[in-house]
Amino acid sequence: MRLLHRDKPQHGEETIAIRAAVPALATQRLLSGGLTYEMGIDSFFGASHAVGADGPRHTHSFRVQVTLVSDTVDEQGMMRGFRGVSNVLNDEVQQLANRFLNEVAPFDVLQPTGENLAAFLFRRLCDGLASAEGSDSGVVALTLWENPTTYVRVRAAPGG
Predict the structure, then answer these.
(1) How many domains does the chain have?
(2) 55: domain CATH number?
(3) Closest to 58 in 3D by CA, of 44, 47, 68
(4) pLDDT per residue over 66-107, tens digit each?
(5) 90 and 12, same structural domain?
(6) Are residues 69 and 100 in the same domain?
(7) Residue 143 contacts by C-beta under 8 Å, 6 or more apart in sequence?
(8) In a domain, 144, yes or no
(9) How many CB atoms lie within 10 A of CB 99?
(10) Partners of residue 150 on adjacent β-strands
């Protein structure tokens, strides 16, 4: 069965139409089957930190991008709502915004390196999205930029 077919309207213009005889859910499954979907959502926050025992305190305008992957979409054609993911991401980064990270747990005992900050946010987002959605978070990576040209990315380990 072909999902899309071409009709020639009276005026000779070619249009693509979805077959009306195929129910919407079946059409959605035909359209999305065999595909993998990737969603990326960004957020921004400013914060300062000091790395090392004698490291100077300095400020960054951080950019955080969460990447989610799914092999399925729902009956509306969505793997997950952008707003829901964005809300969880923004809630997490706002807890760090305009703060001296060395005074925020767990960075009061861990060095607030880009790697540690990215891992912390990755785990918080996985937990937050799983709680909000009641299912696997779908988070596969988190990228943290300390400036426009420097980033660190953490990914879920295979099987982890």
Answers:
(1) 2
(2) 3.30.479.10
(3) 47
(4) 999 988 888 788 888 889 899 999 999 999 999 999 999 999
(5) no
(6) yes
(7) 64, 65, 67, 118, 151, 152, 153
(8) yes
(9) 16
(10) 147
